[in-house]
Amino acid sequence: MNLAVLVFASAATLTTFALDNGLMRTPPMGWLAWERYRCDIDCEHDPKNCISENLFIDMADRLFEDGWKELGYVYVNIDDCWSLKTRDKQGRLQPDPKRFPGGIRKLSRYMHDRGLKLGIYGDMGNYTCMGYPGTPLDKIAVDAQTFADWEVDMFKFDGCYSNATDQEQGYPLMSKALNATGRPIGYSCSWPAYQGGLPPKVNYTQLGQLCNLWRNYGDIQDSWDSVLSIIDWVFENQDVLTPAAGPGRWNDPDMLIVGNFGLSKDQSRTQMALWAIMAAPLFMSTDLRVISGEARSILQNKMIIGINQDVLGFQGRRILKEKSGIEVFWRPLSNNASALVFFSRRTDMPYRYKTSLSKLNYTADSYKVTDVFTGKTDILKDSTDFVVSVNPTGVVMWYISAAGKLQDEPPQITKIDST
Ligand code: GLA
């Protein structure tokens, strides 16, 4: 084979496998059923919380009416336990007619009428994690087409009951099959989570060409321990993970559990702040019908959402781990701006952490600093020492821009639609 043929052949392979849907140039935002609602299918005794069309309609109403949609939270995503245990006569997946009497098409129409989007769930194996029908290799084409026929906008492809060999074929095949439907469908792959999340088993270059987002670590639970273990894993592996992220391809540390039962106010702020540093998809999994004002104001914080949605799409890093238990995180943003998070692992009292911007690698003379939770601003010289008081398991988060320029306003949300 001469060189030209070789180059052509490898370019053709790339095009064949590249995910070409133009979606999710900033991390997707919305709501996902799993963490809060699991596999509750008992609609007879628990009608408000069971996995049924009513639940997704209720959440869509809340997103639409309570100011979430304008902030970018547009996806309403079904997770496991939506289907019947058997396929229909044509071999297609079918929703449980008792719980989804209008079918999935009714739900996608409901979302689209309101400027929202619908996501659905499947599994690259014989069964989903909860034992519903999976999508083994020979069913990939038919299932992708079914989701497109239902006008679904996003698809999460889980990996229970599949092996590494099947996954190697199945995840790329599904990417192609979704593309082949001609419908733009955001593609969330759980593949790396089933392969330990790290090279050499996981090839992040390939993933970025196949999937819009991917889970690479265990499931989030409603606890601080769980949130902390995710934070630790992501930042311990940041050298591998940060280059993988960018417009259209995101590491997914799993859902936001703010609004549930496991996190204090400070811990909720920490999750929101660090998910923004990580350029993480923001999928809430909480009951938006009864969410507290406190949780809502954290999830609806415009500056943090603006940081999460920054158009450059760089995933941020941990830049310091102090013996005192303070850690500092940094994310570069567009317009020469950046975000800093001071996080305390301590369990005693608010810690007064003293540093300066030059100690944190800032070299321009002076900066405008905005505290994203209080809205307070300040002009800081790089050499000036300052003190931030960081609560136990909490954060202080700053948006930082060069001082004195007109364009250095805090980030604004310019997009309604997070695709
Ligand atoms: C796996 C996934 C979860 C959820 C469940 C559903 O555990 O990682 O996010 O989808 O399956 O059964």
From TrEMBL:
Any one GO CC term of the record: membrane
**Keyword Glycoprotein listed:** yes
Q: Which InterPro entries match?
A: Aldolase_TIM, GH, Glyco_hydro_27, Glyco_hydro_27/36_CS, Glyco_hydro_b, Melibiase/NAGA_C
A molecular-function term among this protein's GO annotations = alpha-galactosidase activity
Could you tell me the keywords of this UniProt record? Disulfide bond, Glycoprotein, Glycosidase, Hydrolase, Lipid metabolism, Lysosome, Signal
Give the first-level EC class, as a single word: hydrolase
Coiled coil regions, renumbered to chain: none
Q: Where is the Alpha galactosidase A C-terminal domain?
A: 313-394
Tell whether Lipid metabolism is among the UniProt keywords.
yes
Q: Where in the cell is it found?
A: Lysosome
Q: What is its EC number?
A: 3.2.1.-
Q: What family does the database annotate?
A: Belongs to the glycosyl hydrolase 27 family.
State the oligomer form and interacting partners. Homodimer.
What protein name applies here? Answer: Alpha-galactosidase
Organism annotation? Nothobranchius furzeri (Turquoise killifish)
Phylogenetic placement of the source organism: Eukaryota, Metazoa, Chordata, Craniata, Vertebrata
